[in-house]
Fold this protein.
Amino acid sequence: MSIVRDQILGIVYQCIDELNEQLAPEQQLRKAPHTGLFGDSGMLDSLGFVNFVALVEDKCESCFRVALSLTEDSANQGDASPFESVGELADFIRQLLVNKKAIEE
Amino acid sequence: MVKGLLVSDFNVENLSAYLKNDVSEPRVDTPAIPYGQIGRALLDPSLPCWQSDLDFIVIWTRPEAVLETFGNLLAFSSVDVKRLYEEVDEYAAHLLAIGHRAKVIFVPTWVVPTLHQGHGMLDLAPRVGISRALLQINLRLLENLERASNIVPLNASKWIEAAGEKAFNSRLWYMAKVPFANEVFKAAAKDIKAALRGFGGRSRKLVIVDLDDTLWGGIVGDQGWENLTLGGHDPVGEALVDFQRELKTLTRRGVVLAIVSKNEESVALEAIRKHPEMVLRLDDFAAWRIDWSDKAANIVDVVEELSLGLDSVVFIDDSPVERARVRDALPDVLVPEWPADRRLYPHALRSLDCFDKPTISDEDRHRSGMYVTERRRVELKHEAGTLEEWLRNLSIVVTVESLNVANVARVVQLLNKTNQFNLSTRRVTGPELLAWASRDGRQLWAFRVGDKFGDSGLTGIASVEREGSRARIEDFVLSCRVMGRKVEETMLHIAVEWSREAGLEELYAVYKPTPKNKPCVEFLRTSGLQARAEHVFAWPLRQEYPVCPEIRLIYQTGGLEEMSTDGAEDPDRRT
């Protein structure tokens, strides 16, 4: 299980690298599980967030052969946003992949 | 900081972000107008976005957003090509009308997502074929935009190709109205930055190559020229011939070639002369340093000989050690990473975007040959005793022309790229210069210089503006190729004569220092003009300014009155 989470974190970090090319140095995201993404502690504006989500969805689809719609799926999950931090997003993606039977529990 | 503006019917903020965060020169600031307001932006000059001085604008649209008929075509309606062309013409007219709002306007060509190109055999059919219509509207747009020298179409298909099958991103489109994947915007930003460097006169002008395992395969000193890998039925040999052809192609774009190699000079030159598969011969190289000295020192030497700057140099060498040495010692020299596989050399050279220029003139095409004749001139100078004797032997002819249809493109190019002998380092577009020169009391001359070795082309510019009883020299520009041959004095003579005939009392020049234009002030200090203040030099017009007796002067008539200044007849076109 942790191997998959690490794999997902690796994908998210790749997306951070790509996103950082669009950001000024002081706005760039650190590749760490506690890095805030969107929301109260988030670093991203709305377009940055959209770019990031699209990147993560594209890369997960290539890697796990399953289509994800992170914003739609997060809306269905209730109050807690999975976009508060990189670590929470990785956990959320792992759970989605389990639900879609792309990986085993 | 170069100031730009992005105008688009879609969300183009990602391009803005890549442009702003690209650390290569020039640094740019490029806000984007809110998407979806393209019509208003083009039609309303009172919008705040137009109120500041803009260096460049990018106007990037989707065809279905600006051409109603093309939108109908996407819905598989049969369309009338004539109507389609009318809409393209109308759109192009809007672009031409805002041409004056920035020094340069970039217009990416129209592209269509591949999902719209699933019409199979009908895709290229008349009236319904989307790809056919796309080709037609792009060509029509290009033909329209040729009328303005500062509107530059950019090939967006290239950016789509670079991004591959995921170039069009449906996720980004539906979430944020961003139609393209970021790879497309990255490729676009790279092209736009290269184009800005070209317009700013920062394109590279000199390629210095190594020899062994760079220009040919193998070590000539060990193997002899007969055993080098070059040409023949060999993948590496063929690739190296192609690499040489690509270098030769660059010389037709105004790029000069030189050699810096650690070798025995006689052995290396013999290989260049005798190897039957060599595409490049000695006359293709403006200079060479073939010895065992440090390559960085030799590059400096070559650059000084050719009167170029280190920031105009690209150095190509197969050795990572030599590349690192030159990068370290000469940070202004561009040293591209070079593939270890020699079959990839031609592609690596073609991939360099540092030679981008907005126009190619006849002088560009013949520059390499000019440097070869310059080498012969220098040889003659060493043989001649005095400067006057040398000038007499050269048989210099200076032809004076006013700004006209035939020379405006070259004048603008020379004005924008000359750094060293340049009084004011004014940078202008063709329309700006035409507008400036068309006002009463202003005069601009272009100077062509030739001698018994050949034609150096249009290499000098002087312009003056009348101010009451005085005249001020606005531009005083000379290519370093002809500096030190009394052409400078000849240019001053012309400006003085014009001012005397106008009945003025004084001609003066204000030198605007830059990090590079010291040669100009050094000339002014020794020119005979009187120093009035630290950077002000003047000539009292009661006296003639002497013309150099060794130079033959020819006046050519035909000036600005023969051409339009609205850009409609502007000859400053890309060729």
Summary: The helical segments of chain A are 2-20, 46-64, 70-76, 86-99.
